[in-house]
Amino acid sequence: MALHSNTNPVYVAFLFIFYYVFITAGSGLSSESSSGLLAPYDEHYYRGVRAYFRDDWERAAEFLEKSISTRDKLLRTRRKCHDECLTAGDDKISKLGNYWIQVRAECVRFCMGQSFSPAALLPVSSDIEYEFGTRNPYNYLQVTYYKLEKMAKAASAAHTFFVANPSHLEMRNNLEKYRRILGVKEESFQDREREQEQHWVSSTEGNLQSAHKLKKWKECVNETLKQTEECRAQCVMMSQVIPEEPDTVQGLYERAADLSLSLLSCKQMCVTLVSTRPGRVSAVEDFLPLQLEHLHIAQFKAGDLKGAVETLRSLLLFYPTDSDSLSNLELYTQTVEVNTEAQETGPMQEIAKYISRALQEKRLLYFGMANLDFKFSDPDLWTPEDIVPESLRETWRLNGTNRVVLDGVLSQSECDRVMQLATVAASMGDGYRGRRSPHTPHEKFEGLTVLRALQLAQDGLVNQSDARLLHEIGETVKVLMDSYFRSHSVLYFAYTHLVCRSAIPGHQEGRSDLSHPVHVDNCILEPETRQCWREAPAFTHRDLSAVLYLNDDFEGGDFFFADRDAKTVTAMVKPKCGRLVGFTSGPVNPHGVTAVTAGRRCALALWFTTEKQHRDMVRNLKEEKGEGESALKSARSGRSQGKEKSKDRERVTGRRDEL
């Protein structure tokens, strides 16, 4: 049976280099302390990976397991120390000011120093965070245990990895093979990270086991609150130390304020971390309110009307003017079965505390944004507008956890080149041939894919450098999207399309339609019920969407975000050269385009997915072919610069395809 870890050799080489430079030569910080203190979990991981590629399976299993257990103990100990140090500095808070944060952090460090070496308390690299975030240690472990003929452990590791990577086809095949191996029982297929992801497990079971829905949704809400607290506890150790001798008194105050705001921002971002399913890019929008909705329905169906009222009032703390919740609450007050005590029931204390604390933190963070140039991305959709200072509200409506607008992605000359490419090639690009738009009879529609542009360049119909530029722009956008949305999974191109919409002269009078009606990119929006159904024919695999604008010499054609009712506009973006709109592809971002009433509007639309089987296969094949041709031309010409570019492109593409 052939089992694969599908790991990039270039990345492994990086691990080894990092290990030798920063670990084995690192001022005595690398080894397990003689005092019995635990070493860094990333050190164990480097050693495990090194042993893996030396086929030293016993050592690989030992160090990989150590890395997992040490990381788990680090998180648990940090939470324990956080709880023990909650009151540190409180007795002197009036004298310490913002120094109480540093006092509390020092208390936590001292507490953790009883169990961990100084090196173990240092932050790990983003690469290590990515490895553990995608559960890649279990990818190595399943092969390691297979080689050691410990099939039950191999099956458990494979299952744990697959839970976070359900589109990993090789692991799916491996699991089927493990099931056929004699001696491997069903109980071997257990998720070893189940306890850390209990709020997801409960959610899934709540959907599937109708007889226990009420119990499961209660567990789900409680686990989400618990995981949020666990996450927030980790933020104290991330606080940086205020310099002992700041340049000026003003510098000290600014540094102290920045320290306080950084701590609050870290705690706020736990909303995103807790609501992001393992292996996914985007968080589930309104995760906790969504759970409360399910709990409310389960309580109503089970006849627990007092609990239903309590949950409904909790939900109204997030959205006080939600018409459905208010209607349901009014219905309960008119129901005979709901007694006076139930009607007077308030929201859950835990939710009330959660909301109150979040609002206090957001006020301080937005004050920092408005007055101290602090950077903060609000993870919540329910944040009341009156929390945000007037000077920030327009930006707040656009830039956040689920959407962003970036300017200067392209220069004017690059926009002009792509516009010229569109003028020459879009009409013969992908079948529209300048026909009327599929969305409105008042415009004509032209499109060009990257593949078609490269084919036309090969045929000599367009400039090859312009076609290559279109391809390179896509790579630039991918890097920006990956960076801004902090993807923990590999992003693949799903589809790229250069689109031009042109107003048809004489067909604009009295026009009231849209150039592109309100829609969602990965589900079917139903405005009447405000639901979005993630099913065919929607492109359900899309995770991130982007639109890069090329011009502004037209009338109309503004991009806008809307509410799920498809009527209420929540934010508007006016196109211009080099402006990029990026957003998550799910139901939090319904969007459309206003009518183009004069001129021609061109933009590059891109969609990305984390599911490898849905990547743009045509683009990948074309890239591989293009690399081979570039290498051949470079060898013939003997130009060293061309060789270096070809090698660099090959390395980057190889890493993406391998991962």
From TrEMBL:
GO terms for molecular function: iron ion binding; L-ascorbic acid binding; procollagen-proline 3-dioxygenase activity. Residues 486-610 form the Fe2OG dioxygenase domain. Residues 620-630, 641-659 have a biased composition (Basic and acidic residues). InterPro entries: Leprecan_dom, Oxoglu/Fe-dep_dioxygenase_dom, P3H, Pro_4_hyd_alph, Pro_4_hyd_alph_FE2OG_OXY, TPR-like_helical_dom_sf. GO terms for biological process: collagen metabolic process. Residues 620-659 are annotated as: Disordered. The chain crosses the membrane at residues 12-30. Keywords: Dioxygenase, Endoplasmic reticulum, Glycoprotein, Iron, Membrane, Metal-binding, Oxidoreductase, Repeat, Signal, TPR repeat, Transmembrane, Transmembrane helix, Vitamin C. Its EC number is 1.14.11.7. It is an enzyme of class 1 (oxidoreductase). PROSITE patterns: FE2OG_OXY. GO terms for cellular component: endoplasmic reticulum. Its cofactor is L-ascorbate; Fe cation. Signal peptide: none annotated. Belongs to the leprecan family. This is procollagen-proline 3-dioxygenase. It comes from Cyprinus carpio (Common carp).
